[in-house]
Write a structure and sequence with these properties.
Number of domains: 1
Order of helices and strands: EEHHHHH
Number of helices: 5
Distance between the termini: 33 Å
């Protein structure tokens, strides 16, 4: 406060600097965008991988298994053993099939930390559905594949009862996991859309660096 030549008192201007934000807000400001960007990349990768996986299971259910059912038992076992050996030795398939779950979970966590709650929830739904599909695979399809491999050379087999089990149990389990993967893909697509919207809104609300 000061006094001018007329004796009037004038208030000095006070600082208009905003108070320091809380530590949590600082952390969000510094790390929210990178986390959101990483979540978007993971969501896109997971969507492509899950789409390929769901497509493979759908193809087996709609074309491969019905086609094999029209063949004789010897051909059925030979073909399935060949399919299983090829898939199990393919590292690209292993990465896609197993990598969907951790990538989706990581995306859900990152979106949650970035404040994209809706996208995080749909990513979490995806993870749950895909986890169930993995449990079906581990509980039914893989053990039966192992039994088929243990049966040995089809030319020396005398008991083809395992073929009937494949035509019923394996096919039903594959249909279930195909449906689960398709549902998971729908949820993941929704998560990706919501993530994009949230990111666009956040970008629009962020002050321009040239203003």
């Amino acid at each position: 406060m000061r006094t001018d030549s007329s004796g009037r008192r004038n208030e000095l201007p006070t600082s208009s600097a905003p108070p320091e934000p809380p530590e949590q807000q600082i952390s969000m400001a510094q790390h929210g965008l990178p986390a959101g960007t990483s979540a978007g990349v993971l969501l896109m990768i997971s969507t492509v991988a899950l789409g390929l996986t769901a497509g493979l299971l759908f193809t087996f259910g709609m074309a491969v298994m019905p086609g094999l059912a029209e063949t004789d038992d010897h051909t059925y076992v030979t073909a399935m053993q060949s399919f299983n050996d090829t898939i199990q030795s393919n590292w690209a398939f292993a990465v896609l099939f197993v990598g969907v779950l951790p990538a989706t979970v990581a995306a859900a966590v990152l979106d949650h930390r970035s404040g994209h709650g809706a996208a995080a929830r749909w990513a979490a739904y995806t993870a749950v559905l895909y986890l169930v599909a993995l449990l079906v695979t581990v509980g039914f399809n893989i053990p039966m594949n192992n039994d088929l491999a243990a049966a040995g050379d089809p030319s020396t087999m005398t008991d083809f009862a395992i073929v009937d089990r494949f035509k019923t149990t394996w096919v039903a389990a594959n249909a279930l996991r195909a449906v689960l993967c398709a549902a998971a893909l729908g949820c993941l697509t929704r998560a990706l859309v919501l993530h994009g919207r949230s990111t666009a809104v956040a970008a629009g609300a962020r002050p321009s660096s040239t203003s």
